[in-house]
Design goal:
single chain; about 200 residues; alpha+beta; Nucleoside Triphosphate Pyrophosphohydrolase; 2 domains; three-stranded antiparallel sheet; 4 helices; about 40% strand
């Protein structure tokens, strides 16, 4: 495929719609629709050098006996789902600073240890160029209701057995489903009883 141009279609407060004009190998010209949090994309280079939008985190207690999930009302889902903690990076804050802020605002917990920070990864392939930094770590403190009046979020610690039951009865986001499945069972699907 050959990139031809990117054309802005609509700009909203948080999302911007673009048409990407491209040419297939046989010379057929087509348009690909996408959304972005970046309202200033004008070239292929702008698309490729997009900075991370968000963080998503796998947070356990310091003993690794509980994992943190948020039960959050999501308008785009028409209801509540369980997901991993995280949020949008504001201004020039680092991904770790973003996570610490989001944890405190949404759960009352303090980020105490960061054990791994992955490089930015695409998180909405096929729809958007949004990318997130995945962070693993530990948090401490007492869970309290979210400080944000515009979000309906309840944080919960879950044991491995509780996660296994939750996954068969509740709706989880894809990242939350994958990471908690592995964490709860200490293995990858289809690998028997081998421990991680």
């Amino acid at each position: 495929m050959k990139f031809l141009k990117i054309e802005p279609v609509h700009s909203g407060e948080f999302l911007h719609t673009y048409n990407i004009h491209y040419e297939e190998k046989d010379g057929t010209r087509k348009i690909y629709e996408m959304v972005s949090r970046d309202g200033a994309m004008h070239s292929l280079e702008d698309m490729q050098n997009h900075r991370p939008d968000a963080v998503v985190a796998v947070i356990t207690d310091t003993e690794d006996e509980h994992i943190l999930l948020l039960h959050e009302f999501r308008l785009e889902q028409g209801g509540s789902i369980y997901g991993l903690p995280g949020g949008l990076i504001e201004g020039e804050e680092s991904p770790v600073d973003c996570l610490a802020r989001e944890l405190l605002e949404e759960t009352g917990l303090r980020l105490t240890t960061v054990t791994e920070v992955f490089p930015p990864s695409p998180c909405c392939v096929g729809i958007s160029n949004e990318s997130a930094v995945c962070i693993f770590g530990h948090a401490e403190g007492d869970i309290r209701p979210s400080e944000r009046g515009d979000e309906e979020i309840e944080a919960h610690w879950f044991t491995r057995d509780e996660i296994i039951r939750l996954q068969s009865t509740e709706k989880l986001g894809s990242w939350a489903m994958a990471f908690t499945w592995i964490w709860a069972r200490r293995r990858f699907p289809g690998t028997g009883t081998a421990s991680l």
